[in-house]
Amino acid sequence: MVTEPVRILVVGGGYVGMYTALRLQRKLKPELKRGEVEIVVISPDPYMTYQPFLPEAAAGSISPRHVVVPLRRVLDHCRVVVGEVQSIDHAKRTASFTTLATAEEGTGALDISYDELVLAPGSISRTLPVPGLADYGIGFKTVEEAIGLRNHVIEQMDIASSTRDPAVREAALTFVFVGGGYAGVEALGELEDMARYAARYYHNVKAEDMKWILVEASGRILPEVGEEMGKYTVSQLRKRNIDVRLETRLDTCEDRVAVLSDGARFRTRTVVWTAGVKPHPLLAATDLPRNERGRLRCTAELSVDGAPHAWGAGDAAAVPDVTAGEPGKECAPNAQHAVRQAKVLGDNIAASLRKQPLQEYAHKYVGSVASLGLHKGVAHVYGRKLKGYPAWFMHRVYHLSRVPTLNRKSRVLAEWTLAGLFKREIVSLGSLEHPRAEFELAAGGERPKES
What's the 3-state SS for 187-242? Predict the structure, then answer.
């Protein structure tokens, strides 16, 4: 008799999805060779993005292609499908998904059955109904957004350098970042550093002409590094003439005017939104249990509570923190936990298939590091607090050790070495966002409007 292989469906190609599939490849190597197990990974992108490197990619310290890891190269024993899962019926063990080809074929969504489900779609930006945000806001969660923002910042400097209108110049040189977490502070720090350096090559734009504003609704920034390091970060940013506004919200950014809750108004062509994330909307299209925040309700073994053969981790999962002294506390949805959870998750799935006991995920948070620009940073690791160059160096060492594959580690290290020997690149390649514009114009079309 011919038996069908056990199919493990991994939804998502981010931290949890890629690392779990990678772990399963290793743990189930004999079963994969014998054809007893099949691993299918469905991801909207054919790569995993190492998000801690996005600020450096935006600043030009790392090439965009080295911030991502190609799934097909790493997961060579998995079947990788570039597509989006639309819904999951776990009672029937089926998932409905679309691919790039389904739209062309007009066949609609496809169904795939599975035996074990790893649901790790990650998160999306958490936005608020701020007037004008959808029209003018810029996100900072993908490599495309990071590179687009870099091109946009340099383009604004070009606009300011060539305009004779003071209002246009003021708006071009005003940059508003909303959100004082890792993404907002690191992106602001790296881009301000890059723009300050680029200003030396403009005959009529000086670093002091630019206005950088950080807006945070709470009373502190970078809560992960502790209150003392958060206050230090605020003082360092303000020394760089960055306007840090705590306990302040963005009320509107209509007509390219940012209006804050404290009454301040700024003409600006740049509003970067980094005010948190929320669970992926796919979770609402499943029959799996969720908590009040919309995340999967999981056990300490990373199985979905009350749903056999379903597993979850990372941003999409509410995982109990067994190392915490207080009951009911959950692991923070960050990369440090996601990578470690994926390892335990892969081991537990393999153990479940082999009828072996499962292990609990237990990892005590060791601290955080953050970059504030070239040679500047803060860190709070194992109770030790570091500032300036030592913290920045630790930030680079830590993330170099965590970025997957020797290929990527070597390329990133080589780029850092070359960046230390030569000058920064300050070229904007904004035309990449409209690669056919020149040909369309030559063929009688219209040039795309500026964003």
Answer: HHHHHHHHHHHHHHHCCCCCHHHCEEEEECCCCCCCHHHCHHHHHHHHHHHHHCCE
Q: Please write the tens of the pLDDT for every residue from 216-267.
A: 999 999 888 888 889 999 999 999 999 999 999 999 999 999 999 999 999 9
Give the span between the Cα atoms of 313 and 152, in whole angstroms.
Answer: 35
Rounded to a whole number of angstroms, the distance between the first and last alpha carbons of the chain is 61
Residue with tokens 């009454």: 263
Which residues are 349's β-sheet partners? none
What the block records as the tokens of 436 is 């056919």
The per-residue pLDDT for 420 is 81
Helix (H) or strand (E) holding 155: helix 143-162
For the entire predicted model, the pTM comes to 0.89
Question: In the chain, which segments carry CATH 3.50.50.100?
Answer: 133-275+367-421
* 303 three-state secondary structure: strand
Beta-sheet pairing, 296-297 with 137-138: unpaired
pLDDT of residue 433: 67
- For domain 133-275+367-421, give the CATH number: 3.50.50.100
Across-strand partners of 9?
40, 117
Question: Percent of the chain, pLDDT > 70?
Answer: 97
Residue spans of the chain under pLDDT 70: 1-2, 430-433, 445-451
Residue 1: both structure tokens together: 């008799």
DSSP SS3 for 361: coil
Residue ranges of the chain assigned to CATH 3.50.50.60: 6-125+278-353
CA angle 285, 288, 292 (to 5 degrees): 85
Pairing of strands 384-387, 367-373: unpaired
Which tokens belong to 109? 């969504």
- Reply yes or no on domain 6-125+278-353 having CATH 3.40.720.10: no
Give the pLDDT of residue 432. Answer: 67
How is 72-95 classified by DSSP, letter by letter? HHH-TTSEEEEEEEEEEETTTTEE
Q: How far apart are CA 303 and CA 292, in angstroms?
A: 18
Report the C-alpha gap between 318 and 415 in whole angstroms. Answer: 37
What is the predicted pLDDT for the residue at 447? 63
The full DSSP string for 396-415 is HHHHHHHSSSHHHHHHHHHH
